[in-house]
Amino acid sequence: TFYGPSGYGKTTAAIYAANRFAAYQVQVKSTWTARKLCTAILQDLAMPPARTIADMVDQISEEIAKSGRPLIIDEADQLVSRRMIEIVRDIYESSGAAIILIGEELLPQKLQKWERVHGRMLDWVGAEPGDLADVGHLASIYCPGVELDEELKKLLLKESNASIRRICVNLDRVREFARTKGMKSVSRADWGKAGFFTGHAPAPRRFPS
Description:
Strand order of the largest sheet: 2-3-4-1-5
Radius of gyration: 22 Å
Largest sheet: 5 strands, parallel
Oligomer: single chain
Distance between the termini: 53 Å
C-alpha cells in the first residue's frame, strides 16, 4: 500500500511506475461497481470481458499470472468504501501477482477492517512531503529559464504546505510573475507580497445590507 495526503504526487508516481515497470494500472472512480472495476482492469489488459464478474476475476487472474506484471490500483479507498476490496484479494490469491494499492493517508486504517486483505500486505509505504530538493527539480519543469533564490524557494515550500501539487502551481505563478516583469531571476525581495496559492478557503465575504 502506497498512501498519503492528497497532493503528494501519488498518482503521478503511479503513472511513472506503470510506465517504468510495464505494470497494469486502473484509477477507481467513486461511482464504480464491481463489474465496472473488473471491466476497467480487463480493458487495461486488452481483453474482452466475460459475462459474469466471477469469470472476469478468473480472466484477470490468469492473465496477470501469465504476464508476471504488477497491477496498480489508484484511489483504492473507493474499493473499501464500496466493499469491493475482496475482489482484489480474490485476484491476488488466484494470480500470486504483485498488487499495489494507492490511496489517502487513512487507507491503512481502513484496510484493518478487512483482516484477510490486511494480513496479506507486504509493506506500507507513505508518500513523502515535498522538500527544497523537490522545489529545485520541479522548478526546471514548471518555471524553466528562471532562477529562484533560496529564500524564495523556502517561502514557496512553506506556503505550499509541502504539497507537491501546490508546489507545481506556485512555481507556475513565479514563472508568470517573471515573464510579466521580464525577469530571468526572482528573489524573495522581488516577490514581495505577491502571494502564493496555499489551498486555504477564502474567508466569507461581507456584503452591504
